[in-house]
Amino acid sequence: MAEAPKTQLRVGRLTKAHGLKGAIKLELYTDDPERRFTPGAEFSLQVPKESPWHGKHLVLRELRWYNGHPVGFFEGVDDRTAAETLIKAILWVDQSDDEAGEPDAWYDHQLIGLAVVRDGERIGEVVHVDHLPAQDLLIVKASGREVMVPFVSAIVPEVDVEAGTLTVTPPAGLFEEIVEIEADAAAEAPAEADDATAPAEAASVGDEPAVDQPAADEPRD
Predict the structure, then answer these.
(1) How far apart are CA 171 and CA 11, in angstroms?
(2) Cβ distance 148 to 96 under 8 Å?
(3) Are residues 132 and 83 part of one domain?
């Protein structure tokens, strides 16, 4: 029987080469770097398909802190040139079955399918999660269209997996375009119907014979 795939947790992103010996600055996505970034820790890499690191893993040799910023040293990354090939790579780790999840951390399968709620009303559903170098994006299907919602606390203040809802406080214009298009379509529908019947009515009036008026060549009494 095949072993079920491990659930993975996104824990960091490589941002910039540091020095000449292969060190790379890190942006951490974990509240517990001492547990995630220990010597020997192995990371799956999210990189473009054309990257020489695609499909490979990265093993940490050491994590150091410089001026309050984490810097990683990895096996097989021994100079600045090698380090630069890993910039923007996202680091993932397998979550063990017995470890507790981190607060305010959700897996893709927990988010997909959640009802998106704004001002107490359901406006859509999460259908996909995109993990980009700068930030995560929730792809929300609303009124037949897909809207990209930045997954940040200012726009997504609450995720309630048990209730099956995700609350959004989007900036003006993020969802309004869809609402305005639907409103315009509804308003234009009756007008189009009236326009379609107008020529027929005009034609019937113009073609009606003037029964009270004799023809120009008709003899008069």
Answers:
(1) 28
(2) no
(3) no
Predicted pLDDT of residue 171: 85
List beta partners, residue 70: 65
Q: Which amino acid is at 5?
A: P
Count of all residues that appear for the chain in the document: 221
**51 in any annotated domain:** yes
- CATH code: domain of residue 142: 2.30.30.240
Q: What total number of domains does the chain contain?
A: 2
Instruction: Please give the Cα distance from 149 to 146 (Å, whole number).
Output: 10
Q: What is the CATH number of the domain that holds 62?
A: 2.40.30.60
Is residue 152 situated within a structural domain?
Answer: yes
Alpha-carbon radius of gyration of the chain: 31
User: How far is 112 from 89, CA to CA, in rounded Å?
Assistant: 23
Query: Six-digit token pair at 139?
Result: 């792809």
Distance of CA 158 to the CA centre of its chain: 16
Q: What residues contact residue 68 under an 8 Å CB cut-off, 6+ apart?
A: none
Q: Which residues of the chain have pLDDT under 70?
A: 1-6, 96-105, 133-134, 176-221
Asked if 12 and 58 sit in the same domain, the reply is: yes
> Which residue range(s) make up the domain with 115?
108-167
